[in-house]
Amino acid sequence: MEEGETRSVTIPASEAYGEHREDLVVVIPRNQLPPDIEPEIGMQLQVREPTGQSFVVTVTAFDDETVTLDANHPLAGKDLTFDIEVVEIIRPS
């Protein structure tokens, strides 16, 4: 690309953050959350496995009895489109 040139580039989900995996979505009893946490859609929580590994999950649904947690990356399953413009090219002297 040269200065002033623009281009749109799309990266398919499979080459970006991967496809959305249903096996990374779990429904847990609401009483498994700490009592001081009131779930909200979009809330991110850090979960620790018995092995000590931790990861981030997002609350995607809840009711009086259950909470749905999604461990997929928020952009999983989405194609990414970038609009690129070369503003300046700096060449080493």
UniProtKB/TrEMBL annotation:
<dbReference type="GO" id="GO:0005737">
    <property type="term" value="C:cytoplasm"/>
</dbReference>
<protein>
    <recommendedName>
        <fullName>peptidylprolyl isomerase</fullName>
        <ecNumber>5.2.1.8</ecNumber>
    </recommendedName>
</protein>
<keyword id="KW-0697">Rotamase</keyword>
<dbReference type="InterPro" id="IPR046357">
    <property type="entry name" value="PPIase_dom_sf"/>
</dbReference>
<comment type="similarity">
    <text>Belongs to the FKBP-type PPIase family.</text>
</comment>
<keyword id="KW-0413">Isomerase</keyword>
<keyword id="KW-0143">Chaperone</keyword>
<dbReference type="GO" id="GO:0003755">
    <property type="term" value="F:peptidyl-prolyl cis-trans isomerase activity"/>
</dbReference>
<keyword id="KW-0963">Cytoplasm</keyword>
